[in-house]
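PROTEIN DATA CARD
Card holder: HEAT repeat-containing protein 5B
Chain length: 1402
Origin: Sciurus carolinensis
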Amino acid sequence: MVRLRLYDILALLPPKTYEGSFNALLRELVAEFTLTDNSANTTTSLLRSLCHYDDSVLLGSWLQETDHKSIEDQLQPNSASGSGALEHDPSSIYLRIPVGEAVPGPLPLGVSVIDASVALFGVVFPHVSYKHRLQMLDHFAECVKQAKGVRQQAVQLNIFTAVLSALKGLAENKSTLGPEEVRKSALTLVMGALDNPNPILRCAAGEALGRMAQVVGEATFIARMAQYSFDKLKSARDVVSRTGHSLALGCLHRYVGGIGSGQHLKTSVSILLALAQDGTSPEVQTWSLHSLALIVDSSGPMYRGYVEPTLSLVLTLLLTVPPSHTEVHQCLGRCLGAIITTVGPELQGNGATISTIRSSCLVGCAITQDHSDSLVQAAAISCLQQLHMFAPRHVNLSSLVPSLCVHLCSSHLLLRRAAVACLRQLAQREAAEVCEYAMSLAKNAGDKESSGANVSPFAPGVSSRSDIHCRHQGVNITETGLEGLLFGMLDRETDRKLCSDIHDTLGHMLSSLAVEKLSHWLMLCKDVLAASSDMSTATPLSGGKDEESEKKDEMDDDTMFTTLGEEDKSKPFVAPRWATRVFAADCLCRIINLCENADQAHFDLAMARSAKLRNPTNDLLVLHLSDLIRMAFMAATDHSNQLRMAGLQALEDIIKKFASVPEPEFPGHVILEQYQANVGAALRPAFSQDTPSDIIAKACQVCSTWIGSGVVSDLNDLRRVHNLLVSSLDKVQAGKGSSSQLYRESATTMEKLAVLKAWAEVYVVAMNIKKEAESKPKRAIKNTDDDDDDYGTIDELPPDSLITLVQPELPTLSRLWLAALKDYALLTLPAEFSSQLPPDGGAFYTPETIDTARLHYRNSWAPILHAVALWLNSTGFTCTESTEAAVSGLQKRSASISLNQASGAMASAKSLPEINKDRMHLILGVSIQFLCSPRPEEPMEHVTACLQALHTLLDSPYARVHIAEDQLIGVELLSVLHRLLLTWNPPSIQLLVTGVVQQIVRAAQDYLQEKRNTLNEDDMEKESCPVLGEGGDSGGLIPGKSLVFATMELLMFILVRHMPHLSSKMSDSPSHIATKTRLSEESARLVAATVTILSDLPSLCSPAGCMTILPTILFLIARILKDTAIKSADNQVPPPVSAALQGIKSIVTLSMAKTEETQKQWTALIRSTLACILEYSQPEDSMPTPDEVSMLTAIALFLWSASSEIIGVQSLQNGCMNRFKNALNSCDPWVQAKCYQLLLSVFQHSNRALSTPYIHSLAPIVVEKLKAVERNRPASNTELLAVQEGIKVLETLVALGEEQNRVQLLALLVPTLISYLLDENSFASASSVSKDLHEFALQNLMHIGPLYPHAFKTVMGAAPELKVRLETAVRASQASKAKAAARQPAPTIHSAPTIKLKTSFF
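Structure generated from the sequence above:
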């Protein structure tokens, strides 16, 4: 036992660590497997696994995998396999079984020690010197010589296993075997065994020869070995050497590959074809055909020239060799499969030769399919599978699929495996046809059905008797179809490969068919999940009736073993096993996802109902919601832990997908509300005392999803689920030592972190609801629809509902969250800082389970970080950790929970600023570390949570000051965000990043403003004042240290990502396609956010710094304005345009940029920007029409904000006037109206020098346009608006004019207005717009008269006809008002009491 443990441990360590002890170790190992000190002839059990899997056909069918392998193994000569038992090595109870190893347990100790020594020999051999290798190989030959009889066989078996293990180790280490003498010694050993009468030794020798050729890798060595075998085969007549050397040829080709052994191909093939025709010895035929198959497989396309002769030989032998020689037929099947693979996709062709080859292959498949031996049939199925892969049109599925379905009932494992593997491939492409043909089998069988018709798909293992019944009757398929049969097989099959293939087959069928046949698949899953044995449902109900349940147990056993249930045929015999039910629950989740990708109607009850009405065959998921909930509930409350996990997962998926689906019959409610009780009942058992940690963790996740989904708004209903979380939080507070040590420590870590994560998610949702409620305007009175007053008041206060549940726990939670974050920060440190980890573990992990704990922290840190940021922001960094924690009784808790308080004294030693600083460093450290390089498989929620946490954190004044004081933190954060953008594409993440960038820039702005204010106060009396802001006196920005530079780099990246033509590098590159499509809504929002931040940047710079960055910023803003200000039908202003206009305004009004030193540069910048915008507003032929209104607004912004010296230049002035003239003459009334509004603001400009030229140039056009309205009255509201805006401009001009010019100005305005009045006859027939114009003109005239009485009289006196028109209009207006007043009924006096009566009923 000690030696066994020693060998096992050394095999796990790197050989370099015990290099010095190789000599002693090798002596021990060699003695072990050469049986030097062992009188018994014990043989190793590893030889089978070291030989190639395919070679089992040579060793007899008893070695092939069967359902009764363990019995066959025990019948094997000189082998201990099959005699495993726990008492041989109790450690196997807790050690993991390697994948693929048989379960019966550890072999007898003598065998296990030899196995371990052989395995270790293979590990050590590649590291041993050539001298020692030679000694050992010679020693092996000596040992074989000395032993006699049975002992010689045993020693030889062990030695060959060790040599194979060593050669395998050499190949894996890419080492060579050694010089000539080592090779010679090895060859002598191997070649001797090729003539051994024991087939397994011949097999091992062939395998060793192939591996040697692979390790040596020299052409001459390979040629020598091949030639030796050729000579032997030509001369030898005995069966043993012929079989051994033919296998040697196959193995050489297998391990050296087609290219390495190409020159020997012709000879090898001709010899093996000749041997295969030796009808006197089936054994020689088997071995030579097997080798031939190996050569065909390894040569690939190089074998193409020998396909025809090989194929004709295979067909001939299939027809001539008696069926009783099953091994020969098996090898013929293998050859056929290898040939099909070699010809490959060519099989689809229509040439004469290809057609012949294809039909020969099909004939060969048909012959092997009809063979009585199941292994030959399995070979036939895999040949057909290959054919289907390369030439699917030529394989007849209508006959293949039913035969495969029949084979699914076979008693032979390999045949069932082959059938399922083939079905798996067929279902990938043609799932619908496969299911259809399978159902046709059931229909045909229906006619001949006997009493066994209703075999349930979930029946227990079908015995071989019913297998024969199936073969002839074909009744293994019922109305559940092939899917039902496969689900039933999952309960019976134990073979890993077979079960995995069944899972895949069902998965492919599900992907193709589930959405169309939704009810069928949901029923299938429901049957599997609901078919729990009666026992499980009965036990909770029967309180003390133990006898009854025992009887029930016995009855269950009886029914389990009756082959065909006579009493109740419709009932399944035994419940599907938990693994099948877990798979069914996973299928349920997959169906939900498939429906989500298929059609939105699956998640909209109103749409689903109308679709069902239109077409009753329409099947939509939302109509099956009650079934989904029921299935998830059944799984989540089962007694199998894996099934509970799957059920909780399904429940979480259902809540996420259906949370927002409205209930059409009850507006304002969602469809899931009616299932509150089910969800609560499904979750409650998961929080019981004895539940494993992974289930509690999952249940917490479902709780937080349910609470956060907003399905339940009533506090009392939420409390049921909320109390479950409260109870689990109490467990977390209990500290490390208290929990029952049923599971290991990392399970406790997982559970506690899951609880904290769930609370964090709930808190985040609660704060979001609160924030939304605060931002909404308060509603005064509840609408009176509610029947019930109380209900109204509850509904009135949703904002606080959730937060009131979390608030009481916050003091405890915040402390635990911070502790968890600190743990996570320490655990993410690189390996070289491991010395900094606390020796006794963290708050929630122990040092022993540190690696598994990392995984749990990685899953839960992000929501916790977000919650901590929200909590710190809401408390404003004013809470110390211990203030409120003390209340909850610190004595009960173990010291490990508190962050850093080993005692109360130490906690109070840190002042609040220090604690806050630590917290800031913790949060920023964790965020930066994560955002630096999030792994691609990281869920997107983690990235968004981290960015939202940063955004929230920077809302608080303390955090803003902290990040602004140390500029390098900001720069570091920006470069990390830039890096994140390079690797993460989704627009939602980019938007969040711009939000964080904006927060950083605002923080820096506030901080700088503060400094400027204090400086201004201090330096009022001083002459010189230091220059604040980036860029200093020189204007230089240092990359890596400058916040402005880092921000611009990041923003430029976003802009170029969405508008590539902004970068000349991008637009000049050959891969760039110059398409200017409209920005998507998300891109538009992103570009707008970017422009907003860009325009904030100059305020962070000194005047000289401004001059460095402004050219870039103004260029970008002008270009973005040009590219996004495109005319749209609805005259909407896109977000980037309004952001650009806002940016222009804030930059042009920058006060600090205009110092004496920078005046000249500033003037040039503003002028050139305006010139650019004037140029961009010119319509071009190839470009879309620019939006004149936006361009005019930009021009007007310059005119309002910049001084006349800067933009009073003649050329710019003319350009601006031309743009206004074009707009005034525009045929679009909307543009005219906006133009009048902008002109109004320009005319009113306080600087007369700036506005006067515009008044002189544009006022005459305005007057003309307004005069023309008399002839062409407005026909639409927009046209009317344009006229009204124009009149406002004229009125403003009148008001601006001096007293002596007022009469002339009124002489323009008053006649124009009077011309808009209608006379009595035309008023009645005029359109409503025309009437509105009349009313507008009349109102204005009534308003102007009293304002300028003297001038008004003068104008009216000069033109009597105007006076008449005005008087007529006034009279008509007064008359219509009087009429309207007469029509109205007199107000009733007793109206007040009626209102009173209405509101107070009692």
